[in-house]
Write a structure and sequence with these properties.
The complex is a heterotrimer of chains A (380), B (350) and C (158).
Chain A lengths: L16 E5 L11 E7 L2 E8 L7 H7 L2 H9 L6 H16 L5 H30 L3 H21 L8 E2 L2 E2 L7 H24 L2 H7 L7 H6 L5 H5 L6 H4 L25 H25 L18 E9 L2 E9 L5 E7 L1 H13 L4 H11 L3 H5 L1
Chain B lengths: L1 H11 L5 H38 L16 H11 L10 H16 L19 H9 L1 H12 L3 H32 L4 H6 L9 H4 L1 H17 L11 H4 L9 H26 L12 H25 L5 H30 L3
Helix pairs in contact in B: 1-2, 2-3, 2-12, 2-13, 3-12, 4-6, 4-12, 6-7, 7-10, 7-14, 10-12, 10-14, 12-13
Chain C lengths: L2 H12 L3 E5 L6 E4 L4 H10 L7 E9 L5 E9 L4 E9 L5 E3 L8 H12 L2 E3 L27 E2 L2 E2 L3
Parallel strand pairs in C: 2-5, 6-7
Antiparallel strand pairs in C: 1-2, 3-4, 4-5, 8-9
Classes of the chains: A alpha+beta (380), B mainly alpha (350), C alpha/beta (158).
Chain lengths: 380, 350, 158
Amino acid sequence: MAQVEIVDTADVKTQEMVLNMGPQHPSTHGVLRLEIGTDGEIVRWVRPHIGYLHRCFEKHAENLTYPQVIPFTDRMDYMASMNNNLGYVLGVERLMDIQVPERVEYIRVIVCELNRIASHLISFGTYGLDIGAFTPFLFAFRERERIFDMFEMTCGARMLYNYIWVGGVSHDLPDGFIEAATAFVDDFEKSIDEYNGILSGNKIFIERTANVGILPADMAINYNVTGPNLRGSGVKWDLRRDEPYSIYDRFEFDIPVGRGEMGTVGDCWDRYMVRIWEMEQSRRIVKQALQQIPKGNVHAAIPKQVRPPKGECYFRTETPKGELGVYVISDGTTKAYRVKVKSPCFVALSVLPELCKGAMIADVVAIIGSIDIVLGEVDR
Amino acid sequence: MQALAQYLIQTFGLPVPLSVLSPLLGFMGGVVVLTAIAVQAMYLIWLERKVAAHMQDRLGPMLVGGWHGWAQSLADGIKLLLKEDIVPAAADRPLFLLAPLVVFVGSFAAFVCLPFGDRVIISDLNVGIFYIIAVTSFVVIGIIMAGWGSNNKWALFGAMRSAAQIVSYEIPVGLSLLAAVMAAGSLSMQEIVAAQDGGIHRWFAFRNPFLFVAFVIYFLASLSEVNRTPFDIPEAESELVAGYHTEYSGMRFSFFFLAEYANMFAVAAIAATLFLGGWQAPWGGGAPIFGVIWVIAKAHFLVFVQMWLRWTLPRLRVDQLMYIGWKVLTPFAFACIVGTGAWMLVFKQG
Amino acid sequence: MTPSEIHQRLREKFGDQILGFEGEVVEPTIKVAAPAIAKVCLFLRDDPDLKMDSLMCLSGVDDPSGDLVVAYHVYSMAHRHRIALKVFVPRENPAVPTVEHVWKIANWHEREAYDMMGIVFEGHSDLRRILCPDDWEGHPLRKDYKVQEYYRGMKVEV
């Protein structure tokens, strides 16, 4: 008779399966490869592999003149190009100690906040897609079309603008822009209610996102997470309020933070809701700016040649994804010596392994969507 | 079919024996129904695209064929037929090739027992509804074959999830249908429709509150059987690319696709038959032609609700889905059975 | 605290490990000796008056003098003050202690500095390339970088 082998159940190891999510995957928001070690549906570890969209921005910035670099900044976070332009240009203007005309400041705020709304609309729409709700995406794009129409009216481009230049902006606002923008901000309030109705309050959506991917505040600060991800964890920190640049100190707006209404503070629902609330605040800022904008010549302060004195500067601005830091080292010539960009999405992605511990595969998708990364900015 | 064959022989004096004519008619009927279902599925695909588009503030197919792009499905079907048939090199060939057929068969075999009118039914089995539930479970086997045979971890994930989901939701499906069967007193589909004779208040869904709840449970559980949102994790596009049919292309993919829409219509027709009076008009009775129209209209309404839910709701996670199936729908379905039985005893007419 | 006060505090604690201070520029910078940087950063984070809880940026720079530089921009959210630190290391042996145990984000920033500049961070748990492919040759952001001709049999277009 054959001997039956007795196996001790403690020795039976359920094999860890290594899955590859990406580089081509509908939910990774770009070319991102996630190596996931799973035990069935539970994730044991996540290892992100980036660099698929690395286009050597920093090397280009050393070989081109300062104004020539601005179209390259567009392409980092291509959802919010105006904000990238602004971050870089403010850094250079700080080195050159340029004072831009009032009208330029207002125009910059208007376009940057409109771009913030556009970026958050994408984040809202694609998050719905990730969770399985297909319709909010189309609704979000309806509003984005209006914003794009306004930008096209102004500088000719819908998504990558090369608009904010050192010392000013490339084109003045055309006739009809103020009317179109005013109409947009008036209509947008109803749209936000519509989004809350279709997605934010939906029970299934809340089940998928509440208590998932909790980011504690102290971990967030240690990881230098900024922007809506940090505010979702309850930390009331916004560079526009706490280290104001441009003319943000003239506008009245709130800083929404996550309060753990549906689950725990710092879960996916909080981060998502912060973006929805921020759209409302951006709408307020644009409305105020449209009312206050003065007349002026937008090209008055644009220097003939951008040649900052020798020195270095680390300037940070609040983009829709978080704190964009631009470290410019100038050697006194027309080309920068070194430009280093600290991108908020790079930082946010580095926290992903911590957030995904113990989650399920469906949760990984929800978590990636909630930290709202754009691979163009992660890889530069 | 037997009766029809008999009638034809007697009326026209055909020199063909019954034993030959009857199966021949059955076979022809099968071909007709198969074609009708395929066309129906293609129509439903077009309808889904239009419904989705209008809910998303856009138009959907508008150009192909002229009026609102009615020929879009036809064009897509022809395109899929002409596509290269790709079989992954490392795939398990027999499983990979057979899987779409198994899913297809599982979905289409249910139509054999669906009553489209008084005596308009391919085969009025006296265990009709039991047969339908049994044969639609074939789909699970096909899905697992597809997932395993694709040699793709993501497809396997989708297949495993789907198998777990469908098997779990068979129970609320069976139990809620059992409540209706109790009220009818028979498993035969035509007798179930006959038991709802007499007007809209006699339809099972509106006859007693327990049966109404059973109707709702059946509808939700059947959404899960056909892998529709909010229960569509097996094909969750954003997570698993396309789940168990990731590796399929061309005609094989279209088999899966057609089977899904045929299945949708089949469960809607089952719900219409068992709970909404089948081919009966709301005022009772129904001439043969109108009966077909009534049953198709009711099934279409339910299909529209399925589409409406798909384009509105997000998707449930797999453990939440299991929770709903086992801990919510099943106990409520049991309660419905008990309640229906008690109601029938008390009110003596069910 | 102003930058010079921060510099004062660091000098008191670390003496001649603090090599220099430039205060009259746009970005006040403290020069620190390479071997001490990890201890300095830990002190910056934990000292209650300094409380630099946030590492804004960690960059690698190829200095005109030929040395490689690691620039740390740190900020305190608690006290709202900031400072920049710089560490100079020779090109032939660019070794800097890691600060990933101080601020976890340094893990990825240091990987990028290693990838782009070739600066080796001692004690780093996972020092491998992050943006370039793992088998890429050379460190692209160095001023004397020459791109490789072929990568895995494909001609590298410049």
